[in-house]
C-alpha cells in the first residue's frame, strides 16, 4: 500500500501567500511557543548574538566582564539605531520660512515690521492672506493737496539735515490759543471741522504731487547739498511750533503710508513705533523728493492752513478766541479751587516712610582703613544698605536673599551696629546675634568682621561648644544655631539680644528650622510685653538665604501671620567658568587625583578647593597627593578625652562605614582607562593666562567637621611662597567661607546625607547627588576674590537629569521622634501646633509622642522627664538612646533596715553620696548590702516640687551570710520554715531554711538572706528550735 500523502489544501496556500504579502505571522506558526517576538526584536537579538560571538570568541570571561560586554553591545546597537534614525530624518526637509523665532515669545503685539515680514512670507509661500494681511501689504493711494501734505509734514519730526548756522528768530512764532473753557464736543463734531478741501489748479483740475519710488535701503540721515543762494540767505525762524529744527525747507510730498495715516488720530503713536522698528520711510523719502516750490510759498502754506483749521474748529465749538497778541489767557478760578497734586510713582515698600515716627535716629561711627573701605564698597550688598535698614526699621522680620559673594554675612551685622543696635547708649542696646550652621563658619566670620570693624573690633566675638570669646563689650556675637537653642531653653525671651540674624537658612537644617519657629514665637512674646509694662523692645529677626526659595517661610501663615518683606541683593562679584566632565566616572576619588595632578602642572597660580563626601576620602586622597607632590605635616597637639554627650556633633560625625557602592545608572558609559585624556587636558588651558605655570610644591590641608578648630583655621593662612594650597573639604566649606587665594574648585557632585527608612526605623548616612543649588554654592567659592574656574566631575547630562533643584529639608529626612524629644526638652508641651517652616505630618507627630511616652521620655501630661532630658543629649534616635542610657550608681536606691519615717510622703530609700568610693562603680558592680556611717539630706532647692534625696556615706560592704552570722542569737534574725530536710530523728533534724533580717518593732517578714543549713531540736512547749 502506498504511503499516505496529505492533499494540499488550496485555502491554506492562499492564506500563507496573503500573510507573506501583509507581513504578518503565518497561520501555521508555532502557537505553543513560549514567546512570539516581533521580527525587529528577533533581528536585534540575532545581531547582538553575532556581535558577542565576534568580540568574545572562544575565550572564557568572568561574570563581571560578561556584564560589561553586554552593556557595551547594547550601547553600540542603540547608537547604531539612533544613527539610522538621524539619517532618515536628514532626508526629509521642512520649509522653515513660515517659522517664527522663539525670542518673540511673550512679546505681545507684534511690530509693524514683523507684521509686514510675516505677510510677505505668507504670500510668497502661497498661504491665503486674509483682509488684515492685504491691508498691511497694500494701501490705496489718496489724493491730497499741498496744504495737507504740509500739515502731514508738521506732525512728523523733520529729518536731520546738514548743520546750518542758526540765529535766534526776531520774534517768537505765533500760535493759536490752546486754552478752551468750553466743554469738549463729540468726536464727530471735532473731526468735521478738520476736513480739508481738494487742492485745484487754475484750470480746476486736482493737483497731484510727484512721488519718487523707493529704490532700496536709503540712509535716514541724508545730507542735502545746499544751493549757492541758500548759504547767503538769513534764517528767519520756524514756520510752526511742530516743525523740526532745521534751516532748509523741503517739499512735503508724503508717501503712501503717510497719506493713509495723516487723517487718523494716532499718528504720533504709530510714527513712534515705526521709528523704533526702523520702518518709517517718510524721513528717508523726504530727502530725495524734488523741491518744486520756493521758500516763500512753502513757508506761507502751513501757517495759512493752521489758521483756517483753527478757525473752523473754534466755530464748531462755539469758542471765540482772544486777540492774536494775547499769549497767556487769564482764566477765572472759582473760590474753592484746589490744585491737584503732581502725580509721581509710589516709592518701593522698603523706602516708604517709617511707621514708627517716634523712633530716634542713632548712629555709631566706625573708623576703617582705606583698604577695607574700598573692598567694602565693591560688595553688592553695600549698595542696598538703605533698602535693608529701612526694611528692618519698618518690620520686625525680613528676608534677605543674596547669592554667593554678595557680602551679606559680613556686612549686615555691621549695618545693624552702625544703626545703633548693640550700643549701650541706644534704645536697642541688646546684642546682635548671628547664627551659622557650622563652627568653622562662625569662627572665621567673627574674625573677618572684627578686622573690618576697625576701632570697634573688641565688640565682635564668637561662641561655639567648649570655646568662646564673649565679654561685657560684645555687641556682635557669632555662634552656631545649637548655642542659641540652648540659650532659648534658659531664657525664652532672649532679653540679651535686640536682633537675631539667621544665616544660611537655605540649607534647611533641623536646628535652623526649629530656630526660625522658636523666634517667631519669641517675637510675639516680646510684642505682647511691649504693650504692657515690660521695657523689652521688639526683636528684629533677619533671615538670610543664598537662594530665592523662601516661600516656605514667607507664605506660611502659621509661621508668620504677616508675610515678611523680601529684599533681593545681587550676587557674585567675579565670573566663574564652569567646566563639565565629558563622562561621569564612578570612582570619583581616583578621578579627583588625576585632575588635581594635571591641574597642578598646567593651571596658573591659585588655590584648589576640592569637595569630597567624608573624612575617610579626605585622608585617602591627601596621602596620595602628599606622596606624589609632598605636603606639610599637620599641627600637633595633645589628645584629650571628652564625653560623648558633650562632643560637637555634625552630619559627618557618625560613620556607618565606607560606602563604595554606586548605581550603574549614575555613570554615562563604560569607558576604558585613559580614554579622552587629551580632551580633558584642553579644559586646563586658560586663554587670558596662557603660558603661565603654577608653583611646583603643594600644601594639602583637610577641612571637615571633626577637625579641631585650630586645624580648621589653618586654611585661612597664606601658603608658603612657591607653594599651591590644596584644601580637601566636605560640605562644611560650601557656604559662608571665603578662603583667600582660592581660584579653582573641583566638585565631585556628591555628599553624605542622612536618610531614614520609615519601614525599619533605621537612619543611615548615604552618599548621593547634591542639589543644583548646592552645586552653584560650591562653584561660587572660586569667585569670591577674583575670576575663577569650577571643574565638575560629572557631565552636563547628569547635572540636568539626576541633580534636584533644591535639597529636601533635613526635618523630612530624619526620624521625627528625635525632633519632638528636642522640642519637649525645651519645655514645649504642644508640639503639634509648633510653627515649622515645612511642617511634618501631624499624625507622625502624635505617633512620636506616644513612642516617647513608651520610652519614659515624657510623662502622660506631655512633660519631659529626667530620662528624656538625658536622652536628648545623645545624637541618636530615642530608641537607641534609651538602650544606651546609663544608670549611675548614685541613683541606685537602697532600702535601710530601720525605716526613715512613717507616712506615704516619706521617701523609704536612701542613695549613695557622690563622695563615696562606691559612687564610681557601675550599678551591676554595687554590693547588695552596705553598712553606712551616717545619713545626709540636702535642703530644698528652688523648685518646691522636687524632694531632696537622702544620701548615705558608706562604711563598708557586707554579704548576706555575714549578716546572718552577725545577727545570730539576736531578735533581728528569724528563720522561716524548712525548705529541704537533710536528715531527721525523733528529737533532732538537719534542714535548709531562709533567715530573715528584721528591725525590732517593725512588722513584716524582713529582708530575706541566703539559705542556710541549720540543726533544729524539738523542745517541749516550743517546737523546733534552731541551735
From TrEMBL:
Gene Ontology cellular component list: nucleolus
Acidic residues composition-biased segments: 147-157, 231-244, 254-297
Enzyme class: hydrolase
Record keywords: ATP-binding, Helicase, Hydrolase, Nucleotide-binding
Compositional bias per record (Low complexity), positions renumbered to this chain: 176-192
Enzyme Commission number(s) of this protein: 3.6.4.13
Region (Disordered): 1-35, 100-305, 320-349, 668-692
GO term, biological process aspect, one: maturation of SSU-rRNA from tricistronic rRNA transcript (SSU-rRNA, 5.8S rRNA, LSU-rRNA)
Bias (Basic and acidic residues): 109-127
Compositionally skewed regions (Basic residues) per UniProt: 1-13
Residues covered by the Helicase C-terminal domain: 588-827
Positions of the Helicase ATP-binding domain: 389-566
GO molecular function per UniProt: ATP binding; hydrolase activity; RNA binding; RNA helicase activity
Record field: catalytic activity: ATP + H2O = ADP + phosphate + H(+)
Family assignment from sequence similarity: Belongs to the DEAD box helicase family. DEAH subfamily.
PANTHER family: ATP-DEPENDENT RNA HELICASE (PTHR18934), ATP-DEPENDENT RNA HELICASE DHX37-RELATED (PTHR18934:SF99)
Name of the protein in question: RNA helicase
Organism: Verticillium longisporum (Verticillium dahliae var. longisporum)
Amino acid at each position: 500500500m502506498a504511503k499516505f500523502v496529505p492533499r494540499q489544501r488550496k485555502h491554506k496556500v492562499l492564506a500563507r501567500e496573503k500573510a507573506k504579502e501583509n507581513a504578518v505571522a503565518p497561520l501555521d506558526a508555532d502557537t505553543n511557543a513560549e514567546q512570539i517576538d516581533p521580527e525587529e526584536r528577533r533581528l536585534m537579538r540575532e545581531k547582538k548574538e553575532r556581535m558577542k560571538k565576534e568580540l568574545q570568541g572562544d575565550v572564557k570571561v568572568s561574570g563581571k566582564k560578561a556584564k560589561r560586554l553586554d552593556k557595551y553591545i547594547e550601547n553600540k546597537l542603540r547608537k547604531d539605531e539612533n544613527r539610522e534614525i538621524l539619517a532618515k530624518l536628514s532626508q526629509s526637509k521642512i520649509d522653515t520660512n513660515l517659522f517664527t523665532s522663539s525670542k518673540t515669545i511673550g512679546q505681545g503685539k507684534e511690530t509693524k515690521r514683523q507684521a509686514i515680514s510675516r505677510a510677505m512670507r505668507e504670500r510668497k509661500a502661497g498661504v491665503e492672506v486674509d483682509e488684515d494681511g492685504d491691508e498691511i501689504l497694500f494701501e490705496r493711494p489718496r489724493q491730497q493737496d499741498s496744504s495737507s501734505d504740509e500739515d502731514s509734514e508738521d506732525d512728523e519730526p523733520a529729518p536731520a539735515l546738514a548743520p546750518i548756522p542758526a540765529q535766534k528768530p526776531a520774534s517768537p512764532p505765533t500760535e493759536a490759543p490752546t486754552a478752551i473753557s468750553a466743554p469738549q464736543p463729540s468726536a464727530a463734531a471735532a473731526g468735521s471741522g478738520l476736513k480739508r478741501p481738494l487742492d485745484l489748479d487754475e484750470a480746476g483740475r486736482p493737483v497731484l504731487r510727484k512721488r519718487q519710488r523707493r529704490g532700496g535701503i536709503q540712509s535716514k540721515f541724508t545730507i542735502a547739498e545746499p544751493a549757492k543762494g541758500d548759504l547767503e540767505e538769513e534764517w528767519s525762524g520756524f514756520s510752526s511750533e511742530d516743525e523740526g529744527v532745521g534751516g532748509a525747507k523741503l517739499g512735503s510730498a508724503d508717501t503712501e503710508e503717510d497719506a493713509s495715516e495723516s487723517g487718523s488720530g494716532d499718528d504720533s503713536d504709530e510714527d513712534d513705533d515705526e521709528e523704533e522698528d526702523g520702518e518709517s520711510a517718510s524721513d528717508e523719502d523726504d530727502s530725495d523728493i524734488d523741491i518744486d516750490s520756493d521758500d516763500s510759498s512753502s513757508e506761507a502754506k502751513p501757517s495759512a492752513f493752521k489758521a483756517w483749521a483753527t478757525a473752523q474748529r473754534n466755530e464748531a465749538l462755539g469758542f471765540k478766541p482772544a486777540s492774536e497778541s494775547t499769549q497767556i489767557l487769564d482764566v477765572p478760578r472759582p473760590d474753592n479751587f484746589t490744585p491737584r497734586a503732581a502725580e509721581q510713582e509710589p516709592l518701593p515698600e522698603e523706602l516708604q516712610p517709617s511707621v514708627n515716627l517716634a523712633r530716634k535716629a542713632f548712629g555709631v561711627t566706625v573708623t576703617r582703613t582705606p583698604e577695607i573701605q574700598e573692598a567694602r564698597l565693591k560688595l553688592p550688598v553695600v549698595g542696598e544698605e538703605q533698602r535693608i535698614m529701612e526694611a528692618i526699621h519698618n518690620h520686625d522680620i525680613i528676608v534677605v536673599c543674596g547669592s554667593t559673594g554678595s557680602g551679606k554675612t559680613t556686612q549686615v551685622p555691621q549695618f545693624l551696629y552702625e544703626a545703633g543696635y548693640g550700643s549701650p547708649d541706644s534704645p536697642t542696646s541688646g546684642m546682635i546675634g548671628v547664627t551659622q550652621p557650622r563652627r568653622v563658619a562662625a569662627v572665621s566670620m567673627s574674625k573677618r568682621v572684627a578686622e573690618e570693624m576697625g576701632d570697634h573690633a573688641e565688640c565682635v566675638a564668637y561662641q561655639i561648644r567648649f570655646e568662646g570669646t564673649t565679654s561685657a563689650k560684645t555687641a556682635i556675637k557669632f555662634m552656631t544655631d545649637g548655642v542659641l537653642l540652648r540659650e532659648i531653653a534658659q531664657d525664652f525671651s532672649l532679653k540679651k539680644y535686640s536682633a537675631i540674624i539667621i544665616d544660611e537658612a537655605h540649607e534647611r537644617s533641623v536646628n535652623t528650622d526649629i530656630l526660625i519657629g522658636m523666634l517667631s514665637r519669641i517675637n510675639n512674646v516680646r510684642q505682647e510685653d511691649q504693650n504692657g509694662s515690660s521695657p523689652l523692645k521688639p526683636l528684629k529677626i533677619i533671615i538670610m538665604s543664598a537662594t530665592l526659595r523662601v516661600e516656605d517661610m514667607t507664605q506660611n501663615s502659621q509661621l508668620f501671620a504677616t508675610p515678611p518683606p523680601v529684599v533681593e541683593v545681587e550676587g557674585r562679584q567675579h565670573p566663574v567658568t564652569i567646566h563639565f566632565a565629558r563622562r561621569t566616572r564612578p570612582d570619583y576619588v581616583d578621578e579627583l587625583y588625576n585632575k588635581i595632578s594635571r591641574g597642578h602642572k598646567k593651571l596658573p597660580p591659585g588655590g584648589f578647593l576640592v569637595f569630597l563626601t567624608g573624612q575617610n576620602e579626605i585622608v585617602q586622597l591627601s596621602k596620595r597627593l602628599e606622596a606624589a607632590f609632598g605636603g606639610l605635616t599637620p599641627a600637633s597637639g595633645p589628645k584629650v578625652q571628652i564625653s560623648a554627650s558633650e562632643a560637637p556633633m555634625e552630619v559627618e560625625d557618625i560613620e556607618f562605614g565606607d560606602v563604595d557602592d554606586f548605581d550603574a545608572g549614575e555613570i554615562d558609559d563604560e569607558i576604558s582607562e585613559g580614554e579622552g585624556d587629551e580632551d580633558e587636558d584642553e579644559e586646563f588651558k586658560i586663554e587670558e593666562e596662557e603660558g603661565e605655570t603654577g608653583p611646583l610644591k603643594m600644601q594639602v590641608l583637610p577641612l571637615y567637621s571633626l577637625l579641631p578648630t585650630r586645624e580648621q583655621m589653618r586654611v585661612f593662612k597664606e601658603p608658603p611662597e612657591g607653594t599651591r594650597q590644596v584644601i580637601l573639604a566636605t560640605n562644611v566649606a560650601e557656604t559662608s567661607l571665603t578662603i583667600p587665594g582660592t581660584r579653582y574648585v573641583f566638585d565631585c557632585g556628591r555628599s553624605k546625607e542622612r536618610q531614614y527608612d520609615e519601614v525599619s526605623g533605621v537612619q543611615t548616612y548615604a552618599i548621593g547627588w547634591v542639589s543644583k543649588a548646592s552645586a552653584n554654592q560650591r562653584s561660587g567659592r572660586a569667585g569670591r576674590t577674583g575670576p575663577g574656574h569650577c571643574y565638575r566631575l560629572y557631565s552636563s547630562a547628569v547635572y540636568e537629569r539626576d541633580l534636584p533643584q533644591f535639597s529636601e529639608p533635613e526635618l523630612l529626612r530624619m526620624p521625627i521622634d528625635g525632633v519632638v524629644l528636642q522640642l519637649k526638652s525645651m519645655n514645649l508641651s504642644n508640639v503639634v501646633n509648633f510653627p515649622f517652616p515645612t511642617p511634618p505630618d501631624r499624625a507622625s507627630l502624635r505617633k512620636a509622642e506616644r513612642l516617647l511616652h513608651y520610652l519614659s521620655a515624657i510623662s502622660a501630661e506631655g512633660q519631659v522627664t529626667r530620662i528624656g532630658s538625658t536622652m536628648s543629649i545623645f545624637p541618636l534616635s530615642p530608641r537607641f538612646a534609651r538602650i544606651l542610657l546609663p544608670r549611675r550608681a548614685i541613683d541606685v536606691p537602697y532600702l535601710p533596715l530601720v525605716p526613715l519615717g512613717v507616712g506615704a510622703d516619706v521617701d523609704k530609700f536612701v542613695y549613695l553620696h557622690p563622695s563615696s568610693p562606691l559612687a564610681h562603680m557601675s550599678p551591676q558592680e554595687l554590693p547588695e548590702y552596705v553598712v553606712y556611717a551616717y545619713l545626709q539630706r540636702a535642703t530644698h532647692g528652688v523648685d518646691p516640687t522636687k524632694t531632696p534625696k537622702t544620701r548615705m556615706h558608706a562604711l563598708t560592704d557586707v554579704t548576706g551570710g555575714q549578716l546572718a552570722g552577725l545577727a545570730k542569737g539576736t531578735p533581728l534574725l528569724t528563720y522561716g520554715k524548712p525548705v529541704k530536710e537533710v536528715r531527721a530523728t525523733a528529737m533532732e533534724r538537719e534542714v535548709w531554711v531562709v533567715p530573715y533580717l528584721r528591725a525590732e518593732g517593725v512588722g513584716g517578714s524582713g529582708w530575706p538572706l541566703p539559705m542556710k543549713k541549720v540543726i533544729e531540736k524539738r523542745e517541749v512547749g516550743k517546737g523546733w528550735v534552731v541551735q
